[in-house]
Amino acid sequence: MSAGQIAALIAAGAFVLLVLLLAIPLVKLGRTLDEATIAIRKAHENADPLLTGANDTITHVNTQLERVDGITANAQAVSGNVSALSSVFTATLGSPLVKTAAFSYGVSRAIRARRKAKTGAEGKHSRLRGRNGTS
């Protein structure tokens, strides 16, 4: 064997060793891709029931929202009726009640002022008597 043949054998051996060393990561990468493919397949299979459940949930929520819309419309109608009723009450009874309350307040103030003036006048005379020393 000549030196060139020996060099060729060494180069061929090194090339085989290089191929073997590169084959190990490629095999591991192939296994990883297989596992990823299996995981994606399982996720795809499990997605259909999830989407069906989500559609059912959304349908149920829409039904409940329609009911809430009806309740809201009824509450709005009731508040409008209460507002109209309070306006009618204010127009028919509110003004006379306010006038009656104002009149009774004025009368009570006048009576208190008169009593105060009466007791104030008597109080002045009694104080004057006490200062002069005469009873």
TrEMBL record:
Residues 126-135 have a biased composition (Basic residues). Residues 116-135 are annotated as: Disordered. It comes from the Bacteria. The chain crosses the membrane at residues 6-27. Pfam families: DUF948. Keywords: Membrane, Transmembrane, Transmembrane helix. This is DUF948 domain-containing protein. It comes from Amycolatopsis pigmentata. The lineage of its organism: Bacteria, Bacillati, Actinomycetota, Actinomycetes, Pseudonocardiales.
